[in-house]
Amino acid sequence: MSQYVYPGILAEVENIMVEFMVKPKEVLVVIDENGEAVEEVFDDTETISVYETMRETLVYLTNIDKIGVDRVIQTRLDKIT
C-alpha cells in the first residue's frame, strides 16, 4: 500500500541507501606461523552497527518495492561496467 502513497520518497530512499551503504566488517586472511590460513577480523563497533541498520532498512525497502530496489542496484552495477 505504501508503495502507491509515497513512490517518489521510496525511490529516493532506495537510491540513497544503495549509494551510501557501509561496508560490512573487514576480514583479512593471513598465513600463520604453522602455514595455515587464518582470518583476522577487524572490529569497528560503530561501522558494524551502521551496516546492520542499513542492511535491515534495505531488506524492508525490498519487501515494499522489490522492483525499485532491483532497478537501483542494476543501475549502479551498469555504471561500474
Explain what this protein looks like in three dimensions.
The chain is an alpha+beta fold and 81 residues long. It has one domain (2-80). The protein has helices at 2-5, 7-19, 45-64, 66-80, and strands spanning 26-31, 37-42. The chain has a two-stranded antiparallel sheet. The longest helix is centred in the last third of the chain and has 20 residues, at 45-64.
How would you describe this structure in keywords?
two-stranded antiparallel ribbon, 4 helices, alpha+beta, 81 residues
Order of strands across the widest beta sheet?
Answer: 1-2
Indicate the proportion of strand residues: 5-15%
Q: pLDDT average, as an integer?
A: 86
Quaternary structure type: single chain
Helices, by number, come to 4
* Cα gyration radius (Å): 17 Å
Distance from first to last alpha carbon: 35 Å
State the helical fraction.
55-70%
Low-confidence stretches: none
Biggest sheet record = 2 strands, antiparallel
Count the domains.
Answer: 1
